[in-house]
Amino acid sequence: MLANHFRAEERRTALAARLREEAASWAVPDRTHDPAYQAFQRLSDDDRELLSLVAWEGLSGPEIAKVLGCSRGAARIRLHRARKRLAKELAALDPTSPPTAAVPSP
């Protein structure tokens, strides 16, 4: 039993070392030239938070209203306006793109 324990510990240690080496080699992508990233960064903190709740957290309208502490209608209007501002920022960075295709609805 003791030998099995030490072999298992060696395997875990080797795996941890391999994972550390692999993680160290991961490159962080340079997003400074990405128009979507630039447009998102130009938005206000409130707009970025709201769009993040929808896009990354996957929250629904009622859930967003609860997180923000407002009514469902107010959350829906704020989200609509944030999307319009993002589309405007994207259009300003790339005038050739159609404004309605820039911001998909969930």
For the sheet with most strands, the description reads:
none
Q: Evaluate the radius of gyration.
A: 22 Å
Binned strand content: under 5%
Distance between the termini: 54 Å
Mean pLDDT: 84
- Helix- and strand-based class? mainly alpha
Along the chain, the helix and strand elements come as HHHHH
Q: What is the CATH class of the domain at 35-101?
A: Mainly Alpha
Please report the total strand number as a whole number: 0
Looking at CATH, the homologous superfamily of the domain at 35-101 is Winged helix-like DNA-binding domain superfamily/Winged helix DNA-binding domain
Unreliable runs, pLDDT <50, ≥5 residues?
A: none
**Looking at the chains present, what oligomeric state does this protein adopt?**
single chain
Fill in the CATH topology of the domain at 35-101: Arc Repressor Mutant, subunit A
Given the structure, what is the number of helices? 5
Helix content: 55-70%
CATH architecture of the domain at 35-101: Orthogonal Bundle
Q: Which outline best applies? A: elongated
List its traits.
Arc Repressor Mutant, subunit A, 106 residues, mainly alpha
